[in-house]
Each structure stands twice: as structure tokens, then as C-alpha cells.
Amino acid sequence: MANINEVLQYARQRKCSDVHIGVKTGIVLRKDGQLKSYDQSYDDQTIEKMILSLCHDRILKLVQNHEDADFVYTDGSDRYRVNIYFQRGNVTAAIRVIDDHIRSLEELHLPDVLHKLSLLPRGLILVTGPTGSGKSTTLAAMIDFVSSIKNCHILTIEDPIEYVYQQKQALIHQREVYEDVDSFDTALKSAMREDPDIILVGEMRGYETIQAVITLAETGHLVFSTLHTVGAPKTIDRIIDVFPTHKQEQVRTQLASVLQAVITQQLLPLQSGEGRVAALEVMVATDAIKNLIRENKGHQIDSMIQTGKNEGMISLNGSLAQLIKSGQVNQIIAEEYSLDVGELRQYLQ
Fold first, then answer.
1. What is the CA radius of gyration of the chain?
2. Which of 266, 282, 308 is nearest to 113 (CA)?
3. Sorting pLDDT into bands at 50, 70 and 90, what band is 206?
4. Could you read off the pLDDT of 234-259 as tens digits, one per residue?
5. What is the CATH classification number for the domain harbouring 56?
């Protein structure tokens, strides 16, 4: 009989990032951003059994009610983030292969400024980017770095828990929404009473979660979180726009006071054809940038990033240009990820 674990092991061994499996659509793997068919096909009944074999009781009830479900599936020490959903009435799963160890900032070739940001005493640090851009991996590397050198209490609130941290210098408690607590909002309200120094919120979803995250950062905690946005100006606009119009001015002031950095990440295929590399934009919230946020002049932030090298800032085009010049990435591919191709070409002159 077909075994889902065999498919997942095949994907892991070949360094695939995702497995898509669905009734009527079969099995498709994603490697280095490209989709490729699995080398074996199965009938619809077998595919459905394979998907349902991933589910524990709580998840099975959701699926039987035709509800979407997010959870982590484990096979021994191997972990996979699973989303089960329905399309055209057929059960389907998107499965993310989670690295079997937390890679360091150095292993990920991320800039030194991320070490400095990780050790800030308080404020809000956002890691943003499209789905599959490595946000969780970068955040895990930052948290693991803090844990290795700082005596502190780290609390994570995740849906679901992806990386499991080892206790090093820090005390780490990981709470999974729907398993350990009924919602992000409940977990965030309780967080104040759990004596954390650092809080990781897996994703800023909706008005109440965003409001709670800003409040936690205001009360002297260092808070890490993610958003599905590209670039610091769009990230700031997205946060502000969640709030009703009459509250937006107040939120701009609050956000300006707590924001420490916005790190935007995109993954590009390497020119060698094997693997991917991160291009980053890093905005450090200097006093000048905080003023721009307060005054609703977010459109001027990009030029501040370009001139903020001494503060550790990196523009996306600057990062892309460096990858092209070093021969890691093809220029044509890099231009697909640039928000201003003309500016990128100027960097290359």
C-alpha cells in the first residue's frame, strides 16, 4: 500500500520545499521554486487515504466537515507543516518540508545586522515577504541565536509550531494555537502574565492580533512577527490600514515608537540550478524613519534605506545587485524580483 511517509522522505532527500497532493491532481513537488511531478501516480482513493493518514483526531473532524486545517505532521524526528483544503469538492494538501535542524544566520548567509537586531532589549521586529520566502527559517535562526547567548524567557505563539527550539541560555516556551490555547488573541492577552522577555508571534493576522502585538512591544518586550508584504513602506501601510480611519493617526504614533526593523526577504534560484539564495531589504527604524511613519510619509522610506548603510540598512536592489555581481543569480531572474528594475540596472553600472 502507498505510504505518505515514503513520499515525504523522497521530497526531503531531494531537498524539495513543498509537496502538493490532491484527489484528481495527484502528487507534485516543489524544488528551488519549480514544480515537478512525482515519479509515481496513484488512484484517487489511495491519494485520499494518504492525506487522511496525516490527520490526528481534531484535524480529522475538521476535514470531515470540509473545513481547512493547519497543523504539523511528524514522522519520527522529521516535521512537516500541513494545510488541508478542498478544491472542486476534492481533498487536497499542501505540505511544507521543515528543515531537520535550525540553520544559523551564518549558514543562511544573512547580514550581520540581524545579530544586532536580535539582541535589542525591546520593540517590534517584522520579517516579511511572500509565501515560501523563508520568513520562518530566518526568524528561527534569530531566535536560536538569542537563545544561545542570552539569559531570558522566550515565548512563542504559533499556528502551528514549525521549528522546535532546544533550551540553551534562554528558557523557551512554545504555544500552539488550537492545541495549547484557543486563539492568537487569547495567547497574546495571556502573554503579559507569563513573564516573557521576548515574544514570537507566528503571524500578525487581523486587527486584534496586530493591536495586541503593538501593545506588547509598547510594554517593554521584544516582539518578532511576520507579514505577507514586500518592502517596508507596504508593510507599514498594511498595518495602519487594518485599523479604522479614526484610529490610524494614533496607531502611526504607536508604531513609530515601537518599530525597530522591517526585514523583507525573497528567495531566488541560484544560477547553478541547485538551491536558492535570499535577497533582503533591511529597514532599521532610525529617528528619521520614525518621523516619516508619524507624518504618513512612507513613500520617502525607500530613499532613507538607500542612504542608511551606516545604520545597517540594505535596499532590495542593492542586495539583488550584489547577488548578480557575485555570479550567484542571473540578472534576468533578479529583475523579476525587483520593485524598480531601472534602479537595479543603475546599481550594476
1. 21
2. 282
3. confident
4. 999 999 999 999 999 999 999 999 99
5. 3.30.450.90
Shared-domain flag, residues 38 and 164: no
- Percent of the chain at pLDDT > 90 equals 91
Q: In this model, does residue 1 exceed pLDDT 70?
A: no
Could you tell me the residue range of the domain that residue 153 belongs to? 113-314
Nine cell digits for residue 231: 518592502
229 within 8 A of 128, measured Cβ to Cβ: yes
Q: What is the 3-state secondary structure (H, E, C) of 169-191?
A: CCEEEEEEECCCECCHHHHHHHH
Cβ–Cβ under 8 Å, residues 344 and 330: no
Q: Where are the alpha helices (DSSP H) in the chain?
A: 4-13, 44-52, 57-64, 113-118, 135-149, 184-191, 206-218, 232-241, 248-258, 287-294, 301-306, 316-325, 331-337, 341-347
- Please state the rounded mean pLDDT for residues 77-102: 95
Integer Cα distance of 326 and 323 in angstroms:
5
- Let me know if residue 77 belongs to a domain: yes
- How far apart CA 109 and CA 277 sit, in angstroms, is 8
> Do residues 166 and 189 touch, judged by C-beta distance below 8 A?
no
| 231 lies in some domain | yes
Measured between alpha carbons, how far is 301 from 293 in angstroms, rounded to an integer? 9
Q: What is the pLDDT of residues 266-304, one digit of tens each?
A: 999 999 888 899 999 999 999 999 999 999 999 999 999
